[in-house]
Each structure stands twice: as C-alpha cells, then as structure tokens.
Amino acid sequence: MMLSFFDQFMSPTYMGIPLIALAITLPWILYPTPTSRWINNRLLTLQGWFINRLSQQIFLPINQGGHKWAVLLTSLMIFLITLNMLGLLPYTFTPTTQLSLNMAFAVPLWLATVIIGMRNQPTAALGHLLPEGTPTPLIPVLIIIETISLFIRPLALGVRLTANLTAGHLLIQLIATAAFVLLPMMPTVAILTATVLFLLTLLEVAVAMIQAYVFVLLLSLYLQENV
C-alpha cells in the first residue's frame, strides 16, 4: 500500500520510452496564440492582463538592466503554474514533483545571475560574501558560510518546489483513500472526509500557483543582487 502512494511520482513510460518529455511539451498547446486582429478576444485579453500584472509585481524593484529577463522569467512562471495545475487532475503526471527537473530549471538560471554579477560588478558581487563591519577574526568563517549559502540557493529552489507539491499530492491521495475506505462502514465520517478533501484540493490549487510565483520571485531577487 505504501509503495502505491509513491507510484504517482514515477516517470511514466510506454514500451520502455519515458514520457516526461511529452508531459513537459504538451501544456504549450493549451496556451492561446495571439491573433493579427486589432481587438483580441476575452481569453487573450485576460491572459495579457495576468502576464502584465505578474511582470509588474516581479520586476518593480529591479533596475532597467534586469528587465531583459522579463520574458524568460514570466514564461517560466506561467509554465510552472500550468504544470502544477495540470498535475492536480486525476490520472495525470506532475513533472515538477521530480527534483531533477526542478534543479534543471534552478541551477542554470541561478548560475546565470551569478555570472552576470561577476561580469558587471565583480567587487559588489564578491562583497556579498563579507558583510561590512565584520570583526577580523570572523572574516574567514563568514566567507565560508556565505559561500556555502550562495551555492545552496539553487538546491533550496528545487527542493522547495518538489517538497511542497509532493506533500500536497500525498495528502490528497491519503485522504481520498480514507474516504473510499470509510464510505461503506461510516458514511457520515466519509462525507466529512470528502469535505476535507475538497478543501485540501482548493488549498493545493493555491499552493500550485504560489510555489511557481515564489520560484520565480526568488530568482528575481537573486537577479536584483547582481544587476
């Protein structure tokens, strides 16, 4: 029974061929494409308003040099939101529950922010490793600690997204299993359990959106330090 709970996180295969590439590529066809008309339909207008609001919230504290990342980070956030939301549907696979995929998103983007900082302002980038006014005996220790914290950032990004989505999916499956088991024996308790399951599902919808936003927001903060 315990193994079956974790089977949902295994990458699906068909005739030995992993289908995670299909799970990542397929959501792109769900996005509405812009038209050549002067007036867009309601869906495109809502999509444009949503993207503009998110971009303003993320890039408001960043200077003009960091606005070049707007398209990349906004696209990444919408893509993560789509993957997380589709993973809440029954009999679907959530690619963002795989730590390897999240690290593949986090490490290159974090490394790009570090490289930009070292290229544009190396003194300020290296200055983050040693806070101003540090006592002389603590300088070597603080440099080591700040360096470790710098390299832990991409790991924290990937693990945070993976852990939150995995925990939510496990809770949904556990409560759903309890509701089915209790239904023949205690219908009243099963109905209450199903109500809790519905509320938890609404919470997971919010978590799916918030975690994608937090992932991109932290990347933008790392970018802000280096531009």
UniProtKB/TrEMBL annotation:
GO CC aspect terms: mitochondrial inner membrane; proton-transporting ATP synthase complex
The keyword DNA damage is annotated on this UniProt entry: no
Keyword Thylakoid: no
Membrane topology: Multi-pass membrane protein
Membrane spanning residue stretches: 12-31, 69-89, 101-118, 138-159, 171-199, 205-223
Catalytic activity: H(+)(in) = H(+)(out)
GO molecular function, one term: proton-transporting ATP synthase activity, rotational mechanism
Protein's cellular compartments: Mitochondrion inner membrane
Keywords: ATP synthesis, CF(0), Hydrogen ion transport, Ion transport, Membrane, Mitochondrion, Mitochondrion inner membrane, Transmembrane, Transmembrane helix, Transport
InterPro entries referenced in this protein's UniProt entry, alphabetically: ATP_synth_F0_asu, ATP_synth_F0_asu_AS, ATP_synth_F0_asu_bact/mt, F0_ATP_A_sf
NCBIfam families: ATP_synt_6_or_A
Family affiliation: Belongs to the ATPase A chain family.
Quaternary structure note: Component of the ATP synthase complex composed at least of ATP5F1A/subunit alpha, ATP5F1B/subunit beta, ATP5MC1/subunit c (homooctomer), MT-ATP6/subunit a, MT-ATP8/subunit 8, ATP5ME/subunit e, ATP5MF/subunit f, ATP5MG/subunit g, ATP5MK/subunit k, ATP5MJ/subunit j, ATP5F1C/subunit gamma, ATP5F1D/subunit delta, ATP5F1E/subunit epsilon, ATP5PF/subunit F6, ATP5PB/subunit b, ATP5PD/subunit d, ATP5PO/subunit OSCP.
The protein's name: ATP synthase subunit a
Organism: Setipinna taty (scaly hairfin anchovy)
Species classification: Eukaryota, Metazoa, Chordata, Craniata, Vertebrata
